[in-house]
Design brief:
162 residues; mainly alpha; 7 helices
């Protein structure tokens, strides 16, 4: 890829993406080596529901036994992003996307997570990294649907801007 294309695609450089990727990879490896659990965010969230729901699905032994450190992991993901934003950009909330779009998007992602038996972090980072055929197919599906949806919205004039 020509240098001008890289600078056009990444006007702020690629360093922080590389550092983020390394940290994500290290975090996933540490969790897997320490627990034998693949670090997908949807499972972490689901296990947290064992605190507040009596639904048998959330009361499984694997969730009960590991839910404390999973909550710390989930809070760390959100807190780490907030700290990064605060330090480097001086603010935490950085989107101009309307709240209802965030809500609808979150609901659709949640439904997709259940249908796909996992989320983009589990399939995309851990599954693809371990050459899981199912994860590769899921990530290809996620990306195809996301790109197609963005293109469709753009074509009908709704766009993907706030």
């Amino acid at each position: 890829m020509p240098v001008f294309a890289i600078t056009e695609l990444f006007p702020n450089g690629v360093g922080h993406y590389a550092i983020g990727g390394i940290l994500i990879g290290l975090g996933v490896a540490v969790i897997y080596l320490g627990t034998g659990i693949i670090a997908g965010a949807s499972t972490f969230l689901e296990s947290s529901l064992s605190y507040v729901s009596n639904v048998p699905r959330f009361q499984q032994g694997k969730y009960i036994a590991s839910r404390d450190w999973r909550v710390v992991f989930t809070v760390g993901m959100v807190g780490g992003a907030a700290i990064y934003q605060a330090i480097f950009y001086g603010e935490i909330w950085t989107t101009e996307v309307a709240w209802w779009r965030l809500l609808v998007g979150g609901l659709l992602v949640g439904i997709g997570t259940r249908i796909g038996k996992g989320c983009t972090s589990g399939h995309g980072v851990c599954g693809v990294g371990s050459a899981s055929f199912t994860s590769i197919v899921n990530v290809a599906t996620f990306m195809t649907i996301a790109i197609g949806t963005a293109q469709l919205l753009q074509a009908i004039g709704m766009g993907v801007s706030p």
